[in-house]
Amino acid sequence: MTDIGKLPTTLGELRATPEFSEERVASRSIKDEMRENLIGLLRCGKPLFPGIVGYGDTVIPQIVSAILSRHNFILLGLRGQAKSRIMRQLASLLDPHVPYITGSEINDNPYQPLSYAARKLVEEQGDDTPIAYLTPQQRYVEKLATPDVTIADMIGDVDPIRAARGAHDLSHELTIHFGLLPRANRCIFAINELPDLMGKIQVGLFNIMQEGDVQIKGYPVRLRLDVMLVFSANPEDYTARGKIITPLKDRIGSEIRTHYPLGLDEGMAITRQESWWNRPTPGAEIYVPDYIREIVEAVAFVAREDKKIDRRSGVSQRLPISCLENTVSNAERRALTCGESVIVPRVSDIYASLPSITGKFELEYEGELRGGERVAHELIRAAVARIYDHYFREADTSQIVQWFEMGGTLKVTDGEPAASVVEQLGQIQGLLELAAGAVEDKADDPAVLASAGEFLLDGLYAYRRISRNEELGYVAQEKKRDPAEHKPTPAGTAQRQYN
């Protein structure tokens, strides 16, 4: 590719450059360009969508097929499934520099100008017509569909002020104020939340998708735009807020379904990548045990299965991301307050992160009766039960349970120093030894050992081996159980394969 400092600056120089020859630039549409560049990436074996986890065998192959087919396509899925991120990464399939006539409002192709102003400029200056270049980032145009979007916003309108200033008749092309779509000529034009777009606006997209042209108002001005159209939508929106009209759906080449992570490992990889957990804290380092990450991720998996939560709305991947950040922050607050040099989250820190959970799901009627905080509390408890079973399935915890049955109580707050927690846990015979097995490489660190010990106790609580209340903390399990309480799901359904 020619260095940007050596790119042709006039139409004459452009014609003399083989890379930007008329034969190549004039006949090559943006869909051809993306197809050609995608073929090159596939042959080289380079990653197509860096940072997109869990779609390698499902969504990405379908996107590749759509681009190779030169299709406009729609990404259909629930919230928090990386639809917008995928659309924005499509710009990586564009050329580094694409020439257009300097000053053109609609990125006119130097060899085939569409607008009246560009055609006039080429007619007057010929080979001296000035040329500028678009970068891939400039060629990605995104619009969030809202009910207040008008046809003038999307397509364009006649500008009376422009007509008056130029002394033009209103039917003259120079009086047109181009909308977003014409200004996205030779670009990727992405529309987020397509069903929110009013039906008559969706109708305005018909000609672009089928015939490849657009008409402004009632004047016979046809612009054969070169646009790659990409949409996103949430299935819930079809009935809740709007719908995609049938003729428009028929003109969309490919409908690609996105999904949530299929297993804990995929979800944890996304959360680790997207969350701000490894933050700089003066005088302290952060260590997040694996079981804490697994519990945080399992909260989202449990929520997606829970009947008290609206499945049509979905549970975004932003839930575990926000939850992990809040969990680490609560542990950070404790470490700074207690003067500890190692920040280690505990299960109590996950419970303290309820504000980052309750706003991430919509409740069904039963959930509304219980309340968001109680539902979130039950989700965490069920998640702890799932992960506990992996770490302590074969462990003999009878001595620990017996200690509580004999009248022992243990109250550990989320603000208590690690040394104090370890001292209290040491009262229970065999507990610290079992807890150390969950963090073998860090068992000599009091902060890590305190976290593992609390995880063990909370797992016993999740499986109803012991109980817990605000006044006394962990206590013996009452013989009578509340049948209305949420029963945690066993770890066997956690959708994760352990070696």
Produce a short descriptive summary.
It contains 23 helices and 15 strands.
Task: List the main descriptive attributes of the protein structure presented here.
499 residues, alpha/beta, Rossmann fold, 2 domains, two-stranded antiparallel sheet, 15 strands, elongated, disordered C terminus
Alpha carbon gap, first and last residue: 48 Å
Radius of gyration, whole Å: 30 Å
Structural class: alpha/beta
Q: Please, what is the average pLDDT?
A: 88
- How many separate domains? 2
Characterize the main sheet. 5 strands, parallel
Which regions are unreliable across 5 or more consecutive residues at pLDDT < 50?
489-499
DSSP strand tally: 15
Percentage of β-strand residues:
5-15%
Strand order of the largest sheet: 4-7-10-1-11
Number of DSSP helices? Answer: 23
| Shape call | elongated
What features would you describe in this structure?
The protein is an alpha/beta fold and 499 residues long. It has 2 domains: 30-69 and 71-96 and 135-257, P-loop containing nucleotide triphosphate hydrolases (Rossmann fold, 3-Layer(aba) Sandwich), CATH 3.40.50; 264-493, no CATH class. Helix content is 41%, strand content 11%. The protein is built from 23 helices and 15 strands. The protein has helices spanning 11-15, 22-27, 30-44, 59-68, 83-89, 116-125, 151-154, 160-166, 180-183, 199-203, 206-210, 237-240, 246-251, 264-274, 290-305, 318-338, 347-351, 365-370, 372-392, 398-405, 418-425, 431-436, 446-462; strands at residues 73-76, 98-101, 131-134, 140-144, 156-158, 176-178, 187-192, 214-215, 222-223, 227-233, 254-257, 285-286, 342-343, 466-469, 473-476. The chain has a 5-stranded parallel sheet with strand order 4-7-10-1-11, with helices on one face. β8 (214-215) and β9 form a beta hairpin. α14 packs across α16 (318-338). The two termini are 48 Å apart. 39% of the residues are buried. Residues 489-499 have low confidence and may be disordered.
